[in-house]
Amino acid sequence: MDPQPLPTRPTFADFYPYYLREHRRPGTRVLHFVGTSLFLAGVAGAVATRRPALLPAGIVAAYGFAWLGHFFVEHNRPATFKHPLLSLRGDFRLYWDLLRGRERFQE
Question: What is the pTM of this model?
Answer without folding.
Answer: 0.90
